[in-house]
Amino acid sequence: MRARLLSVFGRPAAPSLGLGILVAASFVVVETLGMLVLRQLSPLEVFGTLYLLGVVVVSTVWGLVLAMATSVVSAIVLDYFRHWPDRHFAFNLENGVVIIGFLVVALLSNFVAGLARARAVEADQRRREASALAEQHASLRRVATLVARGVAPRRVE
User: Which of these, 157, 138, 133, 137, lies nearest to 147 by C-alpha position?
Assistant: First the structure.
């Protein structure tokens, strides 16, 4: 039973941490460039959701620790460039709320990804069990057919 639980909740190895950091940084840079280009067309409050894309991807693939770091960096960069070049980063309650919101999204997306991985492992295990049962059923059917045809017991294997 314990081995089964471990196999269900076991996680395949994530890609390397270095690649995760590179992907997280790339998302932050691309999201920032997107925000700077599009901020002429849309209110600035909309761009918080743009930064969540990188948080969700990093959380899903690389896990919670890197996602939390990506959340904090994304929130800080969002605040810095939201009002750039008029004013620079100043930590206030609004920034704290954004950081907490990003951390909650990272935690929830990591939980959902872990649940999906566990379900996939369980489904794969069930598929293997069904395949083994089908093979056993086919073997029993062959033996029953041979017995029904009156084949000598020594020839039934």
Answer: 157
**Six-digit token string for 2:** 């314990």
Query: Higher-confidence residue: 139 or 41?
Result: 139
User: What's the predicted TM-score (pTM) here?
Assistant: 0.64
Contact 66, 17 (CB under 8 A): yes
- Asked if pLDDT for residue 26 goes beyond 90, the answer is yes
Sign of the alpha-carbon torsion through 33, 36, 38, 44: positive
CA–CA separation, 26 and 35 (whole Å): 14
Sign of CA dihedral 124, 126, 129, 130: negative
Q: What is the DSSP letter of 41?
A: T
Whether the CB-CB separation of 74 and 120 falls below 8 Å is answered with no
Q: Which of 96, 94, 115, 101 is nearest to 55 (CA)?
A: 101
Paired tokens of 73: 């960096």
What H or E segment, with its residue span, contains residue 39?
Answer: none
Do residues 105 and 71 touch, judged by C-beta distance below 8 A? yes
Amino acid at 65: V
In the chain, where are the structural domains located?
15-121, 124-155
For residue 39, give both structure tokens: 């901020």
Rg from Cα positions in the chain: 27
